[in-house]
């Protein structure tokens, strides 16, 4: 009798344990993942009591696509690049998000006016503006530091290994800009075969010297280990290593490619209602501003702008480190989501054949 | 391997050269495994010997990476180390959770593999076994087929049957991978098994169950235990299948290492590696002792 | 136990001269029955495991094989909200059935295409269709997604409207690819896995040089595996010989050095090599310190082919040493001594007398190492950079990144075929029973 009692209690305990509300959020890990945990996950748990499980991926768009297509979805919310969000939405792999769940800005601006233009789509709510830049170790080039995107491809003046993301996106655009193509002409050129050939020809020049990275946390590590002299990276990761960890890294915004990034819900997410609740919460004015305290990515709401102040160290002004700061936009390219939504598959295929050959 | 007395000077030189070459090859085999041990006590976040380490300065060494294994992933790592700190570590530390998962999966996979494998080995070593060769080839094949193929197949199969992202799915997969080892070790102990022993037991009035537990079992036990250890190590070290069929929060030690190596290889990985090396030395010793015991029991000369 | 009794029961000679058991049954029949029973009993011991392996191993692999010849992305769509399966491109498939391959697409074909595109756009299946055709003809995914945006507003004549949207639709290769993709059984993915494709007339041709990659990777996998096998043989032979000729007390101790790597986690060993070989690692430091190279010219020994070869040679070396050792141990040293006493030099004695006796060990070890090497994934992924990747890494890439599962399955099946062939060879030459672990 006593035994059964214990067993029943244990079973009830298990059942309660299992039904406690949890939400699984997939993101990019590292410094960016940490900024989300601090600015979104922890406050969300505090307010609702719902535990948020953070899961990391190199690029969450691929695992969630795999999960939906295979029919075993475990992720409730995923953080993806804008172009991927549009593409997956077109393919019916994402839940649609009703924009009316998004609260108005803290200054009273209606939500749809508060978000940056185009930031809210059928399936995606943008949280940040991030940028792909390149960075170098200042101790490697003390005399004549690189300053333009062309310098990244110049092995003679700036010898040393280069880090590049293993994928077509951003690399092709940077190669063309380094080859002298003006930012506004880049995508027009990439629509043509000659343009793509030209980009690969430029990449060929440094191919032998490239160390390829996949996860966003890798580039600062490659620089710190001395495995590369320069590497492309997401600007926030370099900022965190340089300012947060005092590494001698310098970011070059010349030829940067900036893009939206936001939350989506994979089709068939186990906790759809919680996921919607989480997204509405995380993209509120205060939370977006709070995130900018942890990493140098621009918030997607205009009303968050004035609330962004100092980095968590209490002394670094965030403004100049944002990809959208005026100084940083002199030679910058807005990533074309339609281009990548349509051509991602094709160009990556070409990229992989090029890489293996 | 003594040099014969008629060896010419050239042969003598060759002989010593040969010994040197062998020593170098042994160094190649063992040095990479042992090198991680001192490096895991590095006080600096580097993967090479610092000058302080080389001059054996105690300040060049520290336990900080081992400490990181406990604190990484904790909610409140800075708190004073009292009972609640340890409770926090037990519940939240990433490596501890990975270790828990690895042990749970390894334990059940081992039980399953050992039970089924031993049973099958008993059948396979009977001379009357039909289709012996074919069946043996099928049962050993999980060891031969590249893991990526097994993992790919399991991904499709588990996705369509709802076993993906479950512990049961991983345990079954790991048991399959461990089975060849159990079969090989147990059949090896059954080779030269004297069947007149069981017949003697039977003729003395023991029923088959008694015969099995009193005669067969003690004789094959060393092989069964070795097989079980092999199966456990296989599961404990397996990462490809886990990467393909496990949920993202089902971390195991090798998976955590895989992530660590790919993203941010810190000396914390080396401290895990050191712990794993110690474990493998312990397991190897156990298996060696078992092998000798088994040979003594069966009266086979060592070798 | 009953078998033993049956077999050992006293026999009597019946009147007709046949041997029978005590209860009068013919001995032959009793014996056969006892043997059948033994057979069944042995088999029943194996059945549970066999069933288990069928479910957790053979069925999944079978499912993977079927995935490689069957891809329904072009003609059926699963609605993830309702779970219903919706047919796609119905009219166009009808047109394909009525017309021979190679028929010039007419207005009816274009009308069917326009309707199919609009429908697919409507239910969000267009990405799936575009991706499927893109597997056959590179650069066509955007053609489908782009044209489908306009398809709903198109009016007859459809041929003009579609060609107006994008003139690439006139390309007969696209039509051939759509025809091929509308069949349930397809070998397209095997063609793709061998760098082949179909041209407009359905002939099998090579793909563009700049997209050909799989044959190259298969070749690289086999060449690197052969090289690694050779390296393990070169390194394994001397120490196996040493172990086999030393007195057991010593060789058992040295054997530990071979077995310890065997028991150590693969990831630990791979980590160790990263630590040793990276440019700020121990080996480069040693060379800089000894003055062999200067600090600026540290050698790149990892994240490339060299890294893969070194690490895999180390990891697979025990699989070579153990079979060699078990063949060398029983070789009688008196043969070599006899050769020497008959006047052979030590080299001749080794080459003509000792070496031939070790061939079974070389064969067993070599095959085993080669089989294991061709399927390696973890080590090349971590230390191989881009030039040290093997075919397994490409399978993983298509499984996890590009999500072209049918192609991944086709590549995996080809690799599986190669491995099974080698496994069969191993079984014929060595025998699986002789597989030893320490």
From TrEMBL, chain A:
It holds the Pfam family SBP_bac_8. Residues 1-20 form the signal peptide. Keywords: Signal. Gene3D superfamilies: Periplasmic binding protein-like II. The keyword Signal applies. CDD domains: PBP2_polyamine_RpCGA009. The keyword Transmembrane helix does not apply. This is Putative spermidine/putrescine transport system substrate-binding protein. It comes from Tropicimonas isoalkanivorans.
Automatic annotation (TrEMBL), chain B:
PROSITE patterns: ABC_TM1. InterPro entries: MetI-like, MetI-like_sf. It comes from the Bacteria. GO terms for cellular component: plasma membrane. GO terms for biological process: transmembrane transport. It is found in: Cell inner membrane; Cell membrane. The chain crosses the membrane at residues 16-41, 103-124, 136-158, 170-193, 219-248, 268-290. It holds the Pfam family BPD_transp_1. Keywords: Cell inner membrane, Cell membrane, Membrane, Transmembrane, Transmembrane helix, Transport. Residues 99-287 form the ABC transmembrane type-1 domain. It is a multi-pass membrane protein. Its main location: membrane. PANTHER family: INNER MEMBRANE ABC TRANSPORTER PERMEASE PROTEIN YDCV (PTHR43357). Belongs to the binding-protein-dependent transport system permease family. This is Putative spermidine/putrescine transport system permease protein. It comes from Tropicimonas isoalkanivorans.
Automatic annotation (TrEMBL), chain C:
Residues 1-14 have a biased composition (Low complexity). Keywords: Cell membrane, Membrane, Transmembrane, Transmembrane helix, Transport. InterPro entries: MetI-like, MetI-like_sf. One of its GO terms (cellular component) is plasma membrane. Residues 218-426 form the ABC transmembrane type-1 domain. The keyword Ion transport does not apply. Pfam families: BPD_transp_1 (PF00528). It comes from Tropicimonas isoalkanivorans. One of its GO terms (biological process) is transmembrane transport. Gene3D superfamilies: MetI-like. Belongs to the binding-protein-dependent transport system permease family. CysTW subfamily. This is Putative spermidine/putrescine transport system permease protein. It is found in: Cell membrane. The chain crosses the membrane at residues 42-62, 222-246, 253-276, 309-327, 361-383, 403-426. Residues 1-20 are annotated as: Disordered. It comes from the Bacteria.
